[in-house]
Amino acid sequence: MIFERGLEGLTCRPESVLTVGTFDGVHLGHRVILSDIIQRANNSNGLSTLVTFDPHPREVLLNQLLPRLTTVEERADVLASLGLGRMIVLPFTEKFSEMSAEEFVTELLVKRIGLQSVVVGHDHRFGKGRKGNIELLASMGEQYGFDVNVVGPQTEGGVVVSSRKVRHALQEKGDVSLAAQFLDRPYCLTGTVIRGDARGQGLGYPTANLALLDPQKVVPAHGIYAVSVQTSDARKGGMMSIGTRPAVKESTGVHLEVHLFDFNDSIYGEELTVHFLQRIREERYYPSMAMLQAAMREDEIICKQVLEQTHRHTVPPG
């Protein structure tokens, strides 16, 4: 996949079949559009192209950081796996936000990026004040000789899929199973292993404490989760705790701790990517460490069952 970042050095490719948007999460709705542009590009000897932005336009327009489902790098990995031909990441600044809808099409899409056709969602808006719409895009397509194609909303279980609904499922409910349905893959977080207070070791469940590489990434609701973890050289099953550790009086802030099954290596300083499979339970207070330890044993049993079911469903017999 061709990766281009920034306005400088953009390659004009008139054969591009493109779409425009943030595409945070690259969920099922996004994938319908991506599949469309990839197929159209294949049929016309064109180049499937996504024009996206960093930071998210709402961060600039609202002057606040927003939680995100994917970093630019994570998006690029997913897009490459889907067969996209080119990803263009444009810096969204206050100056950029002042570009009118007409300028956006003429100066950027037509003159700088190039296109033979564009595919957008049914509610696509663009340009200053989001004044550009599908009708304007179609009119300008007639003027500059590119086709405009519109994709309707994608539903899953009767629900229209959107990045906002994925975030809600994760942040408000910890429903990582629903999020995985919307994303067509497990949601993941990547962090660096830092030193904790070794309380898990004393309970028989040593944990890797994670500091997120991207603090803007959405963190699922507090609770216990069955997870699959990618280390530097292995993929291991485990269970993860997200929360305030109510059993520890002096604990402050939110802690992300993962226990890897059948794993005893020292991994301080390593990066781990945690893939969330299922929420096991909410975070609870236990009056004694013995009761907490008993609960963790039950969590381990359930998590291993989830991992076994996941392995059975994803690995073909052979």
Give an overview of the whole structure.
This protein has 318 residues and is of the alpha/beta class. The chain has two domains: 147 residues, Rossmann fold, CATH 3.40.50.620; 128 residues, Elongation Factor Tu (Ef-tu), domain 3. It contains ten helices and 14 strands. Strand 11 and strand 12 form a beta hairpin. The protein is elongated, with a radius of gyration of 22 Å. It starts with a strand and ends with a helix.
Name the features.
Elongation Factor Tu (Ef-tu), domain 3; alpha/beta; 6-stranded antiparallel β-barrel; 318 residues; 2 domains
Cα separation of the termini: 32 Å
Named CATH topology of the largest domain: Rossmann fold
Main sheet: which strands, in order across?
Answer: 1-4-3-2-5-6
Number of domains: 2
**Largest pleated sheet:** 6 strands, parallel
Summarize the structure.
The protein is α/β, with parallel strands linked by helices and 318 residues long. It contains 10 helices and 14 strands.
How are the secondary structure elements laid out?
Layout: E1 2-5, E2 16-20, H1 28-44, E3 47-54, H2 57-62, H3 72-82, E4 86-91, H4 94-97, H5 101-113, E5 117-121, H6 134-144, E6 147-151, E7 155-156, E8 159-160, H7 163-173, H8 176-183, E9 188-194, H9 199-202, E10 208-212, E11 223-230, E12 235-243, E13 255-260, E14 271-281, H10 289-314
Parallel strand pairs: 1-4, 2-3, 2-5, 3-4, 5-6
Antiparallel strand pairs: 7-8, 9-10, 9-14, 10-13, 11-12, 11-14, 12-13
Helix pairs in contact: 5-6, 7-8
